[in-house]
Write a structure and sequence with these properties.
CATH superfamily of the largest domain: Aldolase class I
Number of helices: 11
Radius of gyration: 23 Å
CATH class of the largest domain: Alpha Beta
Largest sheet: 6 strands, parallel
Shape: elongated
Strand order of the largest sheet: 6-11-10-9-8-7
Number of strands: 12
CATH architecture of the largest domain: Alpha-Beta Barrel
Distance between the termini: 26 Å
Structural class: alpha/beta
Order of helices and strands: HHEEHEEEHEHEHHEHEHEHEHE
Number of domains: 2
Amino acid sequence: MEQEKILDPLPGNLGLIHHIVSDALAEDLAMGDVTTESLIPLEWKGTGIFLAKADGVIAGLPVAALVFKQIDSNIEFVQNVHDGSQVGKGDVIAKVAGPLRSILMGERTALNFLQRMSGIATETARYVAEVKGTKAFIVDTRKTAPGLRILDKYAVQKGGGSNHRHNLGDGVLIKDNHLEAMALYEKGIGDTVRLARQKAPHTLKIEVEVESIGDAEEAAKAGADIILLDNMSPDEMQRAVAVINGRSLTEASGGITLANVREVAEAGVDLISIGALTHSVKALDISLDIQPRG
């Protein structure tokens, strides 16, 4: 298994992922595993299977493998599916074999990564399925678990979604509080967009958040690359898309759920950003079961 596959969205960050896994293991094993060390002799060997206990989309297998590799290089990790695969309840996702003590020490940390990332991928896939046939792309936000953004955003991609900014230097996004701050000094949306265009690196897109049709028109006139339609109704979004008339890409955000995402997509927006993909994810139910001998 190629652990480098975890780097699909952000090449060159294997060191960061090693650090994330090391920190997670240090958190769980700071004082050792007193239960396992008391009960399981070093020489005992065994096998465990990762079992899906619900339908979903898998993400995080290379991270789970890295957990066991860092604990004990004698553990063999074999995946039955690849990240991005749809699994059903009862499917065997992967197997681990080797020293039982080491397998048990890594169990919870490996599951924590795998369950969270698979939960994100599963939820993303649901949204992607809802907008199928429209031009809209489902994208994430920076509402990720602190320190785990690279993994959260990787999981979104494995669910069929796309990534928004990875960090604050990844693009210009003029939000409501930026606009409020600028208004204190009598600068409007047009002034703000033009100032960003003047001062930001020319390689970056300029995006601005608007809350009305009039503000959308002003942002488009000022040359914004992307206009974020914040908390608008689908009818308002449709009117804003018509006013913008292709001068800028449009992004819908705020109050979007599985129940209304199709209607939002049919309003004609290009992007739909959903914080709930990562900020309130429900982990996919996965277990690691030690197998009987023979």
